[in-house]
Amino acid sequence: MSKLSPEELERYDRQMNIQGWGQKSQERLKSSKVLVVGVGGLGCPVSLYLAAAGVGHLILVDRGRFELSNLNRQILGQTSDIGRLKVEVAKERLLALNPEITVDALAMEITDDNAKDLVHGVDVVVDCLDNWRTRFILNEACVREKRPLIHAGVSEFHGQLTTIIPGKTPCLRCIFPENPPERERIPVLGATPALLASLEVMETIKLITGTGTPLAGKLLYVDGKDMDFAVIEVKKNPNCTVCGNV
Fold it and tell me: Domain range for residue 169?
């Protein structure tokens, strides 16, 4: 594992003082590689907090450019960034926050052709997408490569979250056997993806450091309008076309 510099020991002091964390967990974060797919309402705070926590290598994937209507929730962008590639802006902001890490900015879309190569070799994949077609492509690649996948989705005041560990938990296709309807412009309060993104970061860090218990085999539903949280158990489908034989 990578050793921590004196500057890093000071930067991460507060979290290293968490009981059971210490220098070894921080070194695990520094040595880790995380793929963040989507740099929007979820991906901006996910990448920001992973960078702040000291994940050593972030790979950001998104082909989009900032629009004015993004700025109520995509917090790495500013008005002056409208028209710029999201991944390039995000890389600048993350390195300004934490120059000790490495950030790869890939202005591209996840497809059947490239998903396996993108997922291969990373420690955790974080689903920060806004469409189900690409989510299922990512899910299948993670199952094939046996890479943990943290899934979240949001709309309005609502969201859901689960941690998928191939071979141990249901995959996304087990949980959603039918494709949910796609929405071109999802209505959303900016604080909703911020909340779910923070939970995705917690799940990612727990997997890397071995701290706590991940949300594996469970699905968390969040209703921010009524401030209601529910966790339900989800079962692996032995006949799943994606993970049934894994």
Answer: 14-233
